[in-house]
TrEMBL record:
It holds the Pfam family Aldose_epim. InterPro entries: Aldose_1-epimerase, Aldose_1/G6P_1-epimerase, Gal_mutarotase_sf_dom, Galactose_mutarotase-like, GH-type_carb-bd. This is Aldose 1-epimerase. PROSITE patterns: PROKAR_LIPOPROTEIN. Belongs to the aldose epimerase family. Its EC number is 5.1.3.3.
Amino acid sequence: MKSKLIAGLLPAVLIVAACNSSSTKSSADTTRQDTTAKADTSKKATAFYIIQNKNKVKAVFTNYGGRIVSLFVPDKDGKLIDVVTGFKTVDEYRKSTEPYFGATIGRYGNRIAKGKFMLDGKQVNLTINNGPNTLHGGKAGFQDVVWDAKQVDDHTIQFTYLAKDMEGGFPGNLNVKVTYSLNDQNELHMDYEATTDKTTVCNLTNHAFFNLNGEGSGTILNHLVQIYADKYTPVDSTLIPTGKLEPVAGTPFDFNKPTTIGARINAQNEQLKDGKGYDHNFVLKGAAAGKLTHAATVIGDKSGVVMDVYTQEPGLQFYSGNFMQSKNTFKGGAKDDFRTAFAMETQHFPDSPNEPSFPTTTLKPGETYKTSSYYKFSVKK
């Protein structure tokens, strides 16, 4: 049965359970009702869920936004550290000035220029929420909905949601299923599926914010990053791709060799100026439909934690925490200070509905959108 816990004590119980438990809990034991959350318009209850593997690696989720709340992995000393930033309560997620911490993103991850595009000869008009553009689904993004949750087993949680026709301006009733699973190779898998009853666009991802030295441990600028991409999509001043694929060679965007995030982030470069740092989509080497490719490797400079990113997607959005403003307080008490977390979002390219040369994001009735990505964790001693 689900256990109700006193408001404010829930996260402490979850964190202690994640750090100290050596036994495998049943799925019933790993669901915890959140009594601190405000009523949602959907009237669905919000809860926290734990999945784990035999190595004591654990992930905490909430069905509010289909979010990763915490992810405990061993560092070079064998100590479990939480490498995902997040909050103690659902109410804090609702009030956060940064709405995307850990969330499942949709119906369209990343930006769409001026919130409009042509589809089947008709203009689709979306809600605007990021300057002149639509970001991460606009004002009706998946980060703000309460998903239906099913704890499949001790290492698997499944979220489902029906995005209704014209929600956020997008056509079609979109049935979405996202399955997060944690295997004994310390891989956190993200499997996405969607179907529609009208032609629409779909681009799903997860927006976990990582600090591989541990949440609240300070800057991520000394993390080593390697991104397996020869090209990227440069952007205009509103962070919309120009439509070109530019070589990374000779630019601050060349991460083919391990390089710290901070090594060139302040270089005199128009793209870095427009993004206030890295907030760009990389065109992955060897990407092909249905093929898993190695997208990136990130290493925490203090912890030795290694995160390898694998995906079936053609792109990877690398975000260096440029808009973090110290306005929110994380689970451990630290503020979300400037560049204290990063994101590696596997995806199709931004603004693909307006760029015919980009891989298509169009989904038609009778088709199934299906894509997988995973984060693999290890240690460099």
